Amino acid sequence: MTTKGSRPGGRSARIQQAVHQAVRDLQDELGRAELTVPMIADRAGVTPSTIYRRWGDLTELLSDVAVERLRPQAPPADRGNLHDDLMTWASEFLEEVSSPTGRAFIVDALGGDPERGNAGQCSAFTAEAVGIILGRAAARGERTPSIEMVLDHVVAPITYRVLFRSDRLWDDSRTFVRTLLSNLAAITVTNPTPGN
């Protein structure tokens, strides 16, 4: 059984691409608050009923577009050791999600229907990037925390501050990330978790 929003290939893929592009263009031109389903449908060359049938409502469509925009375009940088790899990745993650556009994408991704899994997909992108970093470190013989430990002690505090305390984001994001990584290192040394 095909679920709403998951029909791959052919006409469906072309419609998704056209609608996503229309959303991106209109967001750039008018801002997110001005978007309507009829406006997006007109720009994409489809009927509003096509959008409602596929996505259900504007919130779900914006969530779907946000997930695509949050998808990493490249694997995390390899700096040669776990600390530097995590420092680089976490600093870039913080910079990306704390920007006005990044924050809006996170809010949109979280605003979708939990049953459709857009928020889970964002989490999977993050876990995959962390897994790559940890896998490289393990291959070099470094002691590594679990993926969940990195998510809990690095990603979660960043995400919380971006969503709920954005006015309290530290001016020096590298200091914030460095503190999170120091805390993670202390936990990893005192309570190593086998495997990722």
Automatic annotation (TrEMBL):
This is TetR/AcrR family transcriptional regulator. PROSITE patterns: HTH_TETR_2 (PS50977). Residues 13-73 form the HTH tetR-type domain. Residues 36-55 bind DNA. GO terms for molecular function: DNA-binding transcription factor activity; transcription cis-regulatory region binding. It comes from the Bacteria. The keyword Transmembrane helix does not apply. The keyword Transcription applies. Keywords: DNA-binding, Transcription, Transcription regulation. InterPro entries: Homeodomain-like_sf, HTH-type_TetR-like_transc_reg, HTH_TetR, Tet_transcr_reg_TetR-rel_C_sf, TetR_C. It comes from Amycolatopsis rhizosphaerae.
